[in-house]
Amino acid sequence: MEGRGGGGTEERRRSSNNDVIRLERESVIPILKPKLVMKLADLIEQNSDRTEFLKLCKRVEYTIRAWYLLQFEDLMQLYSLFDPVHSVKRLEQQNLSPEEIDVLEQNFLTYFFQVMEKSNFKIVTDEEIDVAHHGQYLLNLPIKVDESKLDKRLLSKYFKEHPHDNLPEFSDKYVIFRRGIGIDQTTDYFIMEKLDMIISRLWLWFLKKTRLQMLFSRRQSRKPKSDPKKTDELNPETEEEDLYVERIRIENMELSMRKLFGKIMIQEPTFDRMIVVYRGAGTKNKIDRGIFVKHFKNIPMADMELVLPEKKNPSLTPMDWVKFLVSVIIGLVTLVSSLELPKADIWVVIAILSGVVGYCAKVYFSFQQNMETYRNLITQSMYDKQLDSGRGTLLHLCDDVIQQEVKEVIISYFILMEQGKATIQDLDFRCEELIQEEFGMKCNFEVLDAVQKLERLGIVARDSIGRIYCLPLKRANEIIGPTTEELVVKATQSSA
């Protein structure tokens, strides 16, 4: 499904039958620019004003694109030195010292993080990962990163010189960015998953009856620093602005014949876009200077491991082996003890054997099924969910920055043109209201950034008490003036 204008995961609210994720609204305007421009133009009554407004939109885009051209050109030139495919040859051609290369690396990262911030991407935090990993979706295997294959120097140096709040514990090796929220739904029979659920519940019942559940209690995962209880203590007005997405998982479903033998639907919130940045560890004799930038789409939160770099091949965890061996030992001891009794109850023996064999079968078949699912998901992430990498990702980001900036300016100017003077707070509210009423979407509008660009363009001013107002359309077009693109088009038409 398409990503929504949502924000990052904050807290989890659970009841007896559901698991709900609270998501904050992001600053992304989730509307295609052509659709936005045409819709706003249709709302203008006068044909002459409509023509001037369309001209203004084009001039705003061309001007903002020119503002960022030099910065983006520097970014692309720097990345050409650290493209993993060609970095070795190009760095050799430049004949740079290691110290000079280090400086260029940090310059590239500085430009890159600025672009990510302008594109409204945020760094995934430990708390968000904990919340995301609370449940399982399609990937049911523990996936870990082979840290020995990752460089720790590049990002450590950057964050030392450019401190960030709430950095994840792995930020010295790789960084994961995310933006936007969507929902992924999968409908299938899930035969093995249902079998696994039934065996798990029978096994838990067996442990409870034999009072052995303490031996098999799972280790508690690290809790998020934010208290999930706070979700229920939020201001009602704040709750209305947030987005709540329910996780629908097999392990939480109530058993019924219809669900057991028919198709069921599971649901998980997704990160609409994810970008991973890292560098390989290299060898003892040669430092790897290549920087990997990989771009993914529609990644389920519970399956975030799909985007991790240098993943280890999954296997049974030590806890699984402990459970497996201890269950066999306990089962055999109990079985022998039962047989030594003067009157051995055959049903007790059968129950014990069934429990032990069932649990062993569960571990084996679950692992085999999860391995097959893992291979399919990895293949899908490579061909379907990976949008681009390297230079292609950077070009996409640069264009994305321009589109967001242009949309902010157009919406702000339109509101001032149609509704008159406004304070910063009023303009912010009116812009968000317009997006919701005309397009049915919500976002956290970046009004300060929009006003700064309007003032830089010179098409708005402030009155004596600080309220913002826009200049008339015709005057605004005269102030911006003909752009290079307009002059080229005019010259082409004249020559034709």
UniProtKB/TrEMBL annotation:
Any Pfam family matching the protein: DUF3754
Transmembrane domains' residue ranges = 321-340, 346-365
> Where in this protein does the record put region Disordered?
218-238
Instruction: Write out the entry's keywords from A to Z.
Output: Membrane, Transmembrane, Transmembrane helix
Q: Which InterPro entries match?
A: DUF3754 (IPR022227)
Q: Where is the composition biased (Basic and acidic residues)?
A: 224-233
**This chain belongs to which protein, by name?**
(wild Malaysian banana) hypothetical protein
Q: What organism does this protein naturally occur in?
A: Musa acuminata subsp. malaccensis (Wild banana)
